[in-house]
Amino acid sequence: MNTQPALSSRRTFLRGAGITLTLPWLESLGGIAHAAEPGQEPRRLLLVCLPLGIYRDSFIPKQSGAGYELTEYLTPLAEFRDRFTVVSGLEHPGVSGGHAAQPRIFTGQPSSERNRRSLDQHVAATLGQHTRFDSLTLSAGANDFGWTDGGSMVPAEKNVVDAFAKLFAEEGAANKTKVLAEIGRGKSILDHVLDEARDLQPRLSKRDQEKLDEYFESVRATEKRLVKSEEWIHQPKPKVDAKAPATFAPEEIITNLRGVCDLTHLAFKTDSTRVITFGYFRQDTVAVPGVNIGYHNLSHHGQDEGNIAQLKRVERVFFDELNTLLTHLKNTREGDATLLDRTTIVVTSNLGSGNSHSNKDLPVLLAGGRFQHGQHLAFEPGSTPLSNLYVSVLNQLGFEDQSFGTSTGPLKGLGLV
Question: What is the pLDDT of residue 372?
Answer without folding.
Answer: 97
